[in-house]
Amino acid sequence: MQRTLEQLEREAQKLPRKERAKLAEALLASLDRSESLHQAWVAEAGRRAEQIDAGKTTTMTVEEVLADLDSVVDG
Q1: Are 41 and 33 in contact (CB under 8 A)?
Q2: Do residues 59 and 52 make contact, with C-beta atoms less than 8 angstroms apart?
Q3: 16 backbone φψ class: left, alpha, beta (φ>0; ψ -120 to 50)
Q4: Who's near 19: CB < 8 A, 6+ residues apart?
Q5: Closest by alpha carbon to 59, among 67, 69, 48?
Q6: Contact 25/12 with Cβ under 8 angstroms?
Q7: In order along the chain (75 residues), what is the average pLDDT of each group of 10 residues?
Q8: Quick count: other Cβ atoms within 10 Å of Cβ 23?
Q9: Cα–chain center distance at 14
Q10: pTM of whole model > 0.85?
């Protein structure tokens, strides 16, 4: 029996948050592994590091990000 996209989505939603994040990352990575995409991410990482070093932006811990996300999702 072949599963439909809807069935796969329902099953994926039942996974713990970390497992869903890993699945999402793997699916996104499978879409385009081109060199230009890699170069764009390297450039973006460099730009972000420069902003942090220059004090133009701040960082958040993963715990802070997840707490913010929980407050948005839980309303």
Answers
A1: no
A2: yes
A3: beta
A4: none
A5: 48
A6: no
A7: 86 92 85 77 91 93 92 82
A8: 13
A9: 18
A10: no
* Residue 23 φ/ψ region, left for φ over 0, alpha for ψ in the -120 to 50 degree band, beta for the rest: alpha
With helix as H, strand as E and coil as C, how does the chain read? CCCCHHHHHHHHHCCCHHHHHHHHHHHHHHHCCCHHHHHHHHHHHHHHHHHHHCCCCCCCCHHHHHHHHHHHHHC
Q: Which residue matches tokens 């309303």?
A: 75
d(CA 55, CA 44): 17
What is the rounded CA–CA span in Å between residue 3 and residue 40? 35
How far, rounded to the nearest angstrom, does the alpha carbon of residue 66 sit from its chain's CA centroid? 12
